[in-house]
Amino acid sequence: MPWLPVLHAIEGDRKLFDTRVLPQDDVVVAETDGVIAGFMARHGDWIEHLYIAPAHQRQGLGAAFIARAKAQVPYLQLWVFARNHAAQTFYAAHGFEEVERTDGQNNEEKTPDIRMEWRALS
């Protein structure tokens, strides 16, 4: 997302994943020919990260990650940037609904965002 500010050097991102994401979150990784095609990190009912490399998008990896998370918990929530229309469309197609919008002043990127939720049918 070229419109997002670059906030951390790669070393800071690695430290975050080494010290918080990998030890604390449910992380699932998809590989194609030994190369990471995408990953999802879930912490409780929060989808914290969902990334699919551009060359692997629209091949069902994101849908498989979402299906896995839905099979594990009856409620999910996530934040998506307001400018990321493709992600909003993807999540909506998988049953997520917008429940909150912010101006971004409380997120690290200072970029408007949307909280979306999914609930299993009772």
Give a quick summary of the entry.
The chain has 122 residues and is an alpha+beta fold.
Describe this structure in words.
- This protein has 3 helices and 6 strands, in the order αβββαβαββ.
- It has 122 residues and is α+β, with helices and mostly antiparallel strands.
- It has one domain: Aminopeptidase (3-Layer(aba) Sandwich).
- The longest helix has 15 residues.
- The chain is globular and about 45 Å long.
- Keywords: Acyltransferase, Transferase.
- Pfam families: Acetyltransf_7.
Explain the layout of strands and helices.
Layout: H1 10-24, E1 26-32, E2 35-43, E3 46-52, H2 61-72, E4 75-81, H3 85-93, E5 97-102, E6 113-119
Antiparallel strand pairs: 1-2, 2-3, 4-6, 5-6
GO molecular function: acyltransferase activity, transferring groups other than amino-acyl groups
Pfam family, one: Acetyltransf_7
Keywords: Acyltransferase, Transferase
